Amino acid sequence: MEFFKEIDKINYEGAKSKNPLAFKFYDPNRIVLGKPMKEHLPFAMSWWHTLCANGVDMFGRGTSDKSFGLELGTMEHAKRKVDFGFEFMKKLGIEYFCFHDVDLVPEDADINVTNKRLDEISDYILEKMHETGIKCLWGTANMFSNPRFMNGAGSTNSADVYCFAAAQIKKALDITVKLGGKGYVFWGGREGYETLLNTDIKFEQDNIARLMRLAVEYGRKIGFKGDFYIEPKPKEPMKHQYDYDAATAIGFLNKYGLAKDFKLNIEANHATLAGHTFEHELAISRINGMLGSIDANQGDMLLGWDTDEFPFDVYSATYCMLEVIKAGGLTGGFNFDAKNRRPSYELKDLFISYILGMDTFALGLLNAEKIIKDGRLENFRKERYKSFETGIGKDIVNNKVSLEDLALYASKLKDASLPSSGKQEMLESIVNQIMFSE
Ligand code: XLS
Ligand code: NI
Ligand code: NI
Description:
Layout: E1 11-12, E2 22-23, E3 31-32, E4 35-36, H1 37-40, E5 43-46, H2 47-52, H3 75-92, E6 96-100, H4 101-104, H5 111-132, E7 135-140, H6 159-178, E8 183-187, E9 192-193, H7 201-221, E10 227-231, E11 240-241, H8 246-255, E12 262-267, H9 268-273, H10 278-287, E13 291-295, H11 314-326, E14 334-336, H12 347-374, H13 376-384, H14 391-397, H15 403-413, H16 424-436
Parallel strand pairs: 1-2, 5-6, 5-14, 6-7, 7-8, 8-10, 10-12, 12-13, 13-14
Antiparallel strand pairs: 3-4, 9-11
Helix pairs in contact: 3-5, 5-6, 6-7, 10-11, 11-12
Bound molecules: D-xylose and nickel (II) ion (2 copies).
Residues 100, 140, 185, 187, 231, 233, 267, 295, 306, 337 line the site of D-xylose.
């Protein structure tokens, strides 16, 4: 069954095209820095936003009909989502998908029933994967929607709930491995707290780490070779989330001896919620060898929550791609953890939204290539530290001097000249020049 008879495969038509259902910049086979664009940009569809979310918000019902002509909450409907999702990915040329357990099937009150449904749906998904060549980027367990997780999963005060979290992780790992997923994500969900008056943060963090360790042990036992990811987020739903940002998550992973099995999944909107730029979070991950995957979206600077908009900001995508290229690429991919705005409710808007996101990252990649080939930014950055290449600077870097040596050096100089000018405005104008001249 074909859902979109009126929408064919989305093709690249070039920057001059006025066809809303065509790529203007994403040209999958175009060679950029030695490899095809699509290899730089392994895009993924998020099951939840694309196939489940209907635009419901705190103030109103859904606006978008995701029933696909069937009754919601049934296995027939769950299969229909698979059919729709695969047609959607195929038409857009998206090669990966990401899922939470409960995105795939309706959750039953009895976890054993839910697990059987997951077996059934994953058989069906596997068939579709073989038919189309589409792959699984990562899976995860939703440990935040069910009321039992009101205090989180690993961070819960209830040992029974902790076991349910473990059971869901076990099953989600089984399904991820069955589908050949490249990664497994822990987004902290409700792993956080509201008030210290009732919370033992040390105990909760120890318990989260224990749960992650158990997940790694089990995953490796069943043959999962990919990366585990932490997806940092500073707030929402909890006031204090333990995985606040990349630096915090990396500290946590190192403290608990989890660093070798984990990398980070960086979401643009989470970065800005933490008061950072997207590229800051990517750079912090990269310099620690932990840039794994990306949740590609963007927030609204005027709204303080995770609005999950489709990426549109070309500067941000450009800085992102500079980081990704510096890191030598991602072990994961670019998952559009993004939803169309509530008033863009037509299913056709889903195609248009993904085209926007994919074109934005294609532009980011093309700009990054130009910036790298131009070389002025990189040269300037290197030059800026050149006082550490000779003399006392070189001795510092080579750990050849003591604090007293440095103090003596300073006392002989009497006064230090100012560091070289940062020239931010010059650099920004170079970026504009490169981006907007052909
Ligand atoms: C929520 C997160 C979530 C994760 C997967 O803010 O972005 O969607 O990506 O659980
Ligand atoms: Ni996300
Ligand atoms: Ni998010």
